[in-house]
Design brief:
There is one protein chain. This protein is mainly beta. The chain has a domain of 98 residues: Histone H3 K4-specific methyltransferase SET7/9 N-terminal domain. The protein contains 1 helix and 16 strands. It has an 11-stranded antiparallel β-sheet, with no helix packed on it. The chain has a 5-stranded antiparallel β-sheet with strand order 2-1-3-4-5, with no helix packed on it. The protein is elongated and about 75 Å long. The termini are far apart.
Length: 225
């Protein structure tokens, strides 16, 4: 009878150990590829052309350091980043954590930085191949919010304006690559409103337009010096 009880206890603890090994299959696989994806970030069984793969770099205090790579070139697609929820180890979508995810292009230049809060994308910054900033702005529920800016490759600001729920709102300005102001006006709910001003590349004002709900109602092209 005692032997039978011992056998039951042994089997019980063996089942616990086996269950833990199933729930945590990656603990002893640091450095291994843990997931493959196609070009649309859908999971696949093997490496595919134009796809991606993910490596587990390290585990520490129930956190997992991972990094994504391009399948074709084996170059990095992201910087290493921590995942705090095991169920997200192979997920292409961040849903439960705060991270700054740095994205690299296939040819090796810094491309984007995505800032997540509670798993939601709240800010994005992009760069040109030459390292100059390309665009920057905030998001809320996947809609552009607040100030957004776009730069030329020479580093000069190209345009800047406000968004509210993905609609242009308030003052907007556009510049030439030289830095000379090109266009300035206002939006309300994505519609041009009130006076819009236009300059040539030498800084001479060439036109004024009056708008109401995106409809041009007046225009002036002659001005007193």
């Amino acid at each position: 009878m005692l032997t039978k009880v011992r056998l039951i206890i042994l089997l019980f603890f063996s089942s616990i150990i086996w269950a833990e090994s199933i729930d945590s299959p990656l603990i002893d696989k640091e450095g291994d590829i843990i997931a493959y994806y196609d070009k649309d970030w859908q999971l696949t069984n093997n490496k595919v052309a134009s796809g991606f793969y993910r490596k587990l770099l390290k585990t520490e205090n129930n956190k997992y350091l991972v990094q994504d790579f391009y399948s074709d070139s084996n170059t990095k697609q992201t910087n290493p980043f921590w995942i705090t929820h095991p169920e997200e180890l192979t997920s292409a979508k961040v849903t439960q954590q705060d991270i700054d995810l740095l994205i690299w292009s296939v040819d090796g230049h810094k491309q984007e930085q995505l800032t997540y809060k509670d798993g939601k994308l709240i800010y994005i910054v992009g760069w040109y191949k030459n390292g100059q900033k390309s665009y920057e702005g905030g998001l809320d529920n996947d809609q552009r919010q607040g100030t957004w800016s776009r730069w030329y490759q020479n580093g000069q600001l190209g345009w800047q304006g406000q968004f509210v729920n993905n609609l242009k709102e308030g003052k907007w300005s556009l510049w030439y690559p030289s830095g000379q102001l090109k266009v300035q006006g206002s939006y309300r709910h994505d519609y041009k409103q009130d006076l819009w001003f236009y300059w040539d590349e030498l800084g001479t004002k060439v036109k004024e337009e009056q708008y109401k709900d995106n409809e041009k109602i007046a225009q002036w092209t002659s001005f007193d010096n």
